[in-house]
Amino acid sequence: MKIIIAVFCLALFPLAVVAQETPASDVGALAEEEAAIVARVDENFDASLTMLEEIVNMNSGTMNHEGVREVGHALTEPFEALGFTVDWLDQDGVNRAGHFKAVKKGDTGARLLLIGHLDTVFAKDGDFLEWRRDGDIATGPGVVDMKGGDIVLLYALKALDDLDLLGDAAITVIMTGDEEMSGKPIDISRKALIKAAKRADVALNFEGGGDGEVVTSRRGSSGWTLTTTGVRAHSSGIFSEDVGAGAIFEMARILDEIYEALAEEEYLTFNPGVIVGGTDVQYDKDATRGAAFGKTNVVAQKAVVDGGLRFISEEQKESAREKMREIVADHRPKTGAEITFEDSYPAMTPTDGNEALLAIVSDVSEALGQGPLTGNDPSKRGAADISFAAPYVAASMDGLGPSGGRGHTPEEWLDIPSVKAATARAALLIYRLTREDAPRFQ
After folding, report:
1. In sequence order, which residues have a C-beta less than 8 Å from that of residue 164 and are 6 or more positions away?
2. What is the pLDDT of residue 211?
3. Residue 259 counted as domain residue
4. Residue 47 is inside which H or E element, if any?
5. Are 298 and 191 part of one and the same domain?
6. Starting from the edge strand earliest in sequence, which strands make up the sheet with 96-104, in order?
7. In terms of domains, do 147 and 236 share one?
8. pLDDT digits over 336-394, tens only?
9. How far apart are CA 138 and CA 129, in angstroms?
10. Distance between CA 55 and CA 249 in Å, rounded?
């Protein structure tokens, strides 16, 4: 059956999604071909762990460009063996190592974009640098965030290829080299990911999962910087007609009014993270570090605050920004204020397409005996690379990787059996989405 796909622009989403019954099996049971896929995942499991250990032991902290490239090179031959054409996308222009891209051309089923990342938060000269295993628990840098997910992605595809079930599927894999600290500007560092998303119908990200939940929505993030000014004068004149309120009182007014206006809005959060103010102020935005000099008997001449905004949709973001601008413009006497905004991650907004995809992956999970899956509370998930793809595809999902915890810390750990479970789930999901009679997203 031909897949019918609507064309979407940024911030537009599918009007309707038709999720057909999966022909291969009913919920709670596996057809013969699907059972063979699961058996192949089991056969490949030890090899998948060996490769996971290998790439975990390659330090790939974001700014260790050589290490990030090493992980990408380690994945090249395995993907080429599956019939993918592999490219390395240099990102020297944004001071990052680059991205791994693998493409398999085809025209059967939904066009898939599979997303991972190669980098970790752990520097090359740190003390958390290698894989360790204790029974069913493994620790190591990026073991769950997200080299474990990368291995799930690879070995799900391998199980299908081993059984000649990839067929004419259209699949693009993007593993970014700077997810943990994205290169700027974003429109350059995420150009390849967005371009791939525009050619896909479904985007799947393999960040860590677990607890019967997958990610169907994420909030976006945006930065903002507020600068206020006042008349420098002896403090005995503050509030007078000639001196006014000063920069710090103006800053306090603005922050308080924004709090009152926005604090109760669902899924919206507003955080002033750092503030400096006084007579003489220096602030380094890139380092989020500043210094100030002032005296208690001098009215503050300048104040700077740097903060973040998180939101569930572009509409919510723009509405919040407009309200902030209105508040900033209503100055106290003899003061001035200016606010600027910087985009970072867009929102992965809840959509009908995501809900239909959730039903499919939940059916897969039940058929595997792993139980049903639910969507997440977006307020409890940060931004991720899937957010750049989500506005352009009919359906998207994250949290398809293995289970673990303590990410971004020296106690990061992985539940080893969950690698097999997540790989089987991913393999069956990809299989069902790339059949001739795959579910339609319209």
Report:
1. none
2. 87
3. yes
4. helix 45-56
5. no
6. 85-91, 96-104, 169-176, 108-117, 202-205, 395-397
7. no
8. 999 999 998 999 999 999 999 999 999 999 999 999 999 999 988 778 999 999 999 99
9. 13
10. 53
Q: Tokens representing 205? A: 């990200």
Picking from 330, 345, 360, the residue at the C-terminal end of a domain is 345
Contacts of 301 (CB under 8 A, 6+ apart): 229, 230, 231, 232, 246, 247, 278, 279, 280, 281
pLDDT for 238: 98
Cα distance between residue 354 and residue 226, in whole Å: 36
Q: Does the pLDDT value for residue 21 go beyond 70?
A: no
The whole domain housing 293 covers: 220-345
Domain identity same for 193 and 247: no
Which residues, 6 or more positions from 318, have their beta carbon under 8 angstroms from its beta carbon?
Answer: none
**Which structure tokens are listed for 221?**
């993030």
Structure tokens at 295: 């005296």
Please write the tens of the pLDDT for every residue from 90-105. Answer: 999 999 999 999 999 9
Judge whether residue 18 has pLDDT over 70.
Answer: no
167: exposed, middle or buried (C-beta count within 10 Å: 0-12, 13-18, 19+)?
middle
Please give the pLDDT value at position 442.
64
Q: Is 274 within 8 Å of 290 (Cβ atoms)?
A: yes
- Regarding whether 185 and 38 lie in a shared domain, the answer is yes
Q: What is the spatial distance between Cα 435 and Cα 158, in angstroms, rounded to a whole number? A: 17
- Residue 439: which pLDDT band, with cuts at 50, 70 and 90? confident
